[in-house]
Amino acid sequence: MLVNLGFIQLRFPSSIAIDPTAVCNDNVTNSSTCVINSGNITLSINGSIPALTSFLLTVDKVKNSAESTQTTSFTIYSYYDALYSSLVDRLETGLTVTMTANPITTASVTPLSLTTYAVTSYTLNFVLKDDISQNGYI
Amino acid sequence: MVSASFPTGTCQLVPNSQILRITNCFLTGAMTIWTTQIVLNGIRNPPSFKVSESFKIQTYSSVPTLTNFITSGITVQMNTASTLSTFTITPLDSTVHANTKHAIRIIHVIPLLINEYVVLNFDSTMQISNTVSCTALSGLSAISCIRNSNSQLKIIYTALPSSQTL
To answer: Which residue of A has its CA nearest to B5?
Structure first.
């Protein structure tokens, strides 16, 4: 049970960025107030929420991780009232996502010579979908 | 020796048979120019007109994890055959209208594989016998011949050449 002024706090993995202008909403109560601050989402409770309540939280303007590996875990904490000392539930592991690499859709190759077995120059043109990070490679 | 030019300055190529890794391009910062052109010098073309397998392009972060990729649809196809560097044919008997043997010497530019073949077109005033036969002299352990017409002969390399001088 969470009571009036209780709150739920979610933290995204550091590799996932939330735009400062992003908006979050939940399906439980319209009177809740959702605030996003530097990757932390705080859902303030106005009223009370019983145990076993299923939450659906949506956040827009989230930029996926640049790495196609499993992220660290999202974390979720719930607090009975307005004080951080009133921790009720927590989840700190196992809530991860894994991105997939972005396919390139525009690419071409042009040999300077089309004579069999000739040693020649090849020009490759392609359009990346994402930045290549510092110390990355092709 | 393979070399490359790239829009973001000097890069290091790490050739590994069919794989080129372009590295050291992004030591001072991320590459944010997404439209990219790379010129690779010193690439040997495929030996035939057959459409090549696709080039594959993959970009990696510093972790490294795969970021962008394409593995199909980037092919090349040759349209000009390279010429033989040496071709000579010497008749054993140069008497007109004689039935004789011809010694053929070929230096191939492109390495040949088993069952690849040469098609020889003779002058139209010459005639290939219905019972034509071929013998490997040097550079080959086995060949076979098929008479395609009065003036055309197909020589099949039924064993791997020991050298490209035949």
So the answer is: A123
